[in-house]
Every structure is written in structure tokens, then in C-alpha cells.
Amino acid sequence: ACTYSTFNNTVEFKAGRNLFPGEGLTIAYGWDKGIVSPPSSFKRFLWAVNLEQNWIFILPLSSLLIMIILWYRRGRDPRVRESVTVMYGPPQFNNAPLCPAEVGTLVDETLDSRDITATIVGLAVKGYIKIEETKEEGIIFDSKDYYLAKQKDADDSLTLFEKKLMSGLFGALKGRMVSDLKNNFYTHINPLKKTIYNELTKKKFFTVSPDNIRHFYTGAGLIIAIAATALINLLFSDSIGETRTFIAGIMSGLPMLGFSKLMPAKTKAGSAAYMEILGFEEFLSRAEKDQLIRMKDENLFSKFFPYALALNVADNWAKAFEGIYQQPPEWYVSPMGARTFSPTSFNRSVSSAMSSLSSAIFSAPRSSGSGFSGGGGSSGGGFGGGGGGSW
Length: 391
Prior knowledge:
alpha+beta; 2 domains; two-stranded antiparallel ribbon; disordered C terminus
């Protein structure tokens, strides 16, 4: 039992006996509503987070705030116009169209497998490569492979990326099985990434190589996480505990790691090119038969098919040409031989070529320790479209 007494605005409680060590006394007291002002939402929040015990987590919150400000000031692309205007071709630099890999990389600021395989298709459309589908009959299942036959050497009409891609595919050889690229081509991926990023930076589409920006913030985030953990643990582990110091230190570096993929920024020219790409994608995905016929370009299907692959709208592009483009491409050879050509069925039937090629060029032996990723995959249709179809 306990007693209490009131004096002015004070209530005094007294236990009826001495309390043993660790023993507590619970007090309940009520008063009319309105005598005491209720706590604000902010004060309730402070009570909930127990700032007195968890003040150390102000550090990761500050780190997050700093990264939001940095992204807002340096990581956002300049806005060049509000709406997308339909474009009837890819962006150009010095009166030359960007290659499919450049277009795909400008979209997501990353070179992925779709960009590379679409560029290989583009090289085939230009006459540098012929793709031959091969089939070997088995006891139960047939096995399928693809042979890349070099038709001519790379020349100055190609971008530096396309030249290095040709060199990586063939070297001194005249042809290469796609299956032979498995566990062999992967050594060319990082140099190809460096090439595409540097070329787009030289063309003033990026302020700095996107990969360099990502690596900088990733490295800085790791360093901050390790350094903050060590320093906080050294200074405050006795007062707030090792668990809190460890968590707070690691969390201090997480905002930089999380924002690293968002920090690459395009220039005004890069943003303008990106808007042109969106307009070009709009044309590729929504083109209608009447419109295509009026354009009177018998090479239109093949010319833009690699870009449709890079932008993942190949199905739409092929469907638009159904009944218009009726001759199989010269650069793609199928064991089925000549037959009535359908762009949509052709696109579906050889989509496995893109998957096979993507899988082969990005595969690496386990012992290599390679740490790259294929990125955006190769969905959205297979190889397609060659020169000189009939209308």
C-alpha cells in the first residue's frame, strides 16, 4: 500500500514500506481532459524512437539526407522538354546514327546483354556477319547451335565499340560457333563496357563515365561503412553498446551504396538524345502497316530491327510488317531452307538465338572469379530482318 498527498500542482506518493533492491512501485493517477496539453506528433515520434538511447542513428539519417541532396543536384538528368515527340530513326552524332548498344546504354546507363546481342544483329544487317543456324540430330532430342561467319573486316564506318566487338568475336578467325564463345568471350565484356561508356562520354552524352560514377559511390559507401563502424565502436561502444554502434556504422554507408546506381547523369545533349530514343521507341512499337507502306523503304524492317531488339520492342516491330516484308534475310541461314517468310514467326522461331548468344558471351568458368552480370537479358524477340526484302 502507499499514500499520497497533493500540494498546489504537485502530487506526492509514499510507499508503505521500504522497497527491496529491484522491487518497483506502480502509480496510476488520472485527471480531467484538458488540464495537461497532449504531446505533439513529433514528441510522440521522439518517444517512440527513444532518441536518448538511439541518438547514434542520426549519423545514417544524415548520410541519407546528404545523398538525397547530392542526387538532386548531381544525379538527375537535365530536363530538355516535357513531352516525347515521335522520331523515325535513332539519334545521330556527327551525321552518323548511334549503334544499338549506344542507344540501349543511353536508356538505362548500363551496357547489358541485350545491347551487345542487338549490336551483333546490327553487324549482320550491315553485312559484316552472317548467322547460320545449325542442327544436329540426336537419339531423342536435336541440338541447336549457331555459326557466326565473318563476311568482311571491320572498317572506319563502324563505331569503336562495334570494331572491338568484331575483334572479340572473331580475332583472326573467319567464323565462330556460338557455343565456342562460352567461357571464352567473357574476358571482352569489361573492356567493351569501358569502351561504350568512354565513347558516350567523349560524345558529350555523359558528364563522366557512368561506371566510374557507380564505382566511386560504391567504394565510398564501403569505406564510410567500415570507417564509421570502427570509429563509433571505439568512441561509444561502452556507453551505447557494440550492437548499436555496429548497426549505425554499417547503415552510415548504405545510402551511398544504394544511390550509386542513380548517380550517373547525362548532359543536356544526352538527355536530348534520350528523349529522341523514347520517340524512336514510340515509332518502333506503334508503327502501322499503312504508315510503313507510305514510307516506301524496302530496307526499313531490317535497318531498324536491331534497335527494336535493343529497346525490347521487336515483337511489335515484326508484327507491323506482317504481310509487307515477305523475303527471308540474306544474313540469316536456317536449316529449314527457303519458305514463305513471316516476320512474326521468324522473330519467334529464332528468339532462342538471342538467348543462346547472350548466355554464351556472358558465361565464365567458376575459377575465373569474374564478377559481372548480364544485366537486362535478351527477351523481346530474336534475330531478325535482313537486307533487301520484297514489298
